[in-house]
Amino acid sequence: MKTVRTLALILYVSGAAFAQNATTAGRFTVEHPTLLNPGFEWAISGDDNRNATVSAEYRAVGEAKWREALPLVRIEGERIFRQKEHFDYTVPPGFACSILNLKPGTEYECRFRMSDPGGVSGEASLTVRARTREEPQAYTRSRQLHVYTPDYKGERLAPSFSSVLEAYYGAGPGDWNAVWEQRAKPGKAFATLADLRAATGQEAHGIEVDFDIFAKPGPPNPANRHAVYHAMDLSFELRPGGQAVDAGVRIPAISDDFTGRAPDPGALKVGAPEAKYGPLWLTWQSFYR
Predict the structure, then answer these.
(1) Among 33, 155, 170, 201, which is least packed, fewest CB within 10 Å?
(2) From CA 144, how far away is CA 59, in angstroms rounded?
(3) CA 264, CA 106: separation in Å to the nearest integer?
(4) CA-to-CA distance for 248 and 259, rounded, in angstroms?
(5) Which long-range contacts (CB under 8 A, 24 or more apart) does 173-182 make?
(6) What residues pair up with 111 in beta bridges, in sequence order?
(7) Last residue of a domain, which of 97, 131, 165?
(8) Do the domain assignments include residue 240?
(9) Model confidence pLDDT, tens digit, residues 125-177
């Protein structure tokens, strides 16, 4: 019996020796904010006993008083998978949180402190700035269409409609229904975009482009009609000096941060940092190839 207890003690001590209970602070990421809530992630290593914590405080820039926010949530090992799409992902160690119910269009200082009874190495205290999104504003040059329920008996502002569908298709010449009223007949072909525009009223703001507007994609190989092109081998960034550059239209609170004469159409802008989608701290290495 004594031999068994001694062996158990040796195994316990050996396991404890290999455990990394101290925490090492890693990369800190400020996520894209919403109108009211900025989000944050803080990657770590160690903390095998999961007793590290991160407190959070915030204040609007210019204010003196710090306000307490909810502590960051310890994350690690959560599995996300969809077998049909061959997607299987396990969340790495770290902390994550959002600071809730702030004011839109306001810049905040956010302070985070990491602590662990086993000790913290790296930068254990961080102060960052995050700005909530501005509330989107109505386009100043747009028309207003008023939709009421069919049984509404009160005053109706003109132009008025009894359903969204009626407003969409029956709004008179203008925003949408020029496409509906003057649509091309089946089989009708047009030599140029200008001919299409003149005959139908469609594509009033359209421009003709080709594959050369992009940095890397070229036309598909006609000799291999069924080829599969992987997105990682292509670059859909706009080519500087191409026809699509500065060809967009400003949308208030959506595309205000453009450079040049006007916004670039599409998601990837010339000279802008590479667009990141999803959690920023997880996208530096592709996981789907």
Answers:
(1) 155
(2) 39
(3) 26
(4) 11
(5) 174/143, 175/142, 175/143, 178/202, 178/204
(6) 57, 127
(7) 131
(8) yes
(9) 999 999 999 998 877 777 788 999 989 999 999 888 988 888 877 655 444 44
| Joined tokens for residue 209 | 């482009």
Looking at the structure of the chain, the number of domains it has is: 2
**From CA 199, how far away is CA 193, in angstroms rounded?**
10
- Confirm whether 186 is domain-assigned: no
Which range of residues forms the domain containing residue 95?
21-131
Token pair in block for residue 66: 């710090």
